[in-house]
Amino acid sequence: MRRLRYVIKRLIEDIRASPLVEEGMLIGISIIMLTMLLSLVSGIFGGVKSALDGANGSMNSIFDQIASELNQIWQYVSGLFGSGG
């Protein structure tokens, strides 16, 4: 651990190696930020997919309920005209 610190310190102090160390650090930060951004976008798309799946299930449930109500109305109306005729 001390040896690693010593090597990094020497690289930072060395004028020729300093730009390489800085670029390496910037690349590392860029990779971390890109990973965070991709995970955030993935989470958003996952949430949108869940919401759309829930909405689809709700719409199917609503249509089933409407069809059931219309069927009951049809049965009532056909019963009125069928028994009176």
Determine Rg (CA atoms, Å). 34 Å
Largest sheet: none
Distance between the termini: 98 Å
| Number of strand segments | 0
Q: Mean pLDDT, rounded to whole units?
A: 84
- Briefly note the structural class of the backbone: mainly alpha
Report the principal-axis shape: rod-shaped
Strand content: under 5%
Tell me the count of domains: 1
| Number of H/I helices | 2
The proportion of residues forming helix, as a percent range, comes to: over 70%
Q: Detail the poorly predicted runs.
A: none
- What's the SSE pattern? HH
Description:
The chain has 85 residues and is mainly α. The protein has two helices and no strands. Helix 1 crosses helix 2 (18-84). The chain starts with a helix and ends with a helix.
Concise overview:
With 85 residues, this protein is mostly helical. 93% of the residues lie in helices and 0% in strands. It has helices spanning 2-13, 18-84.
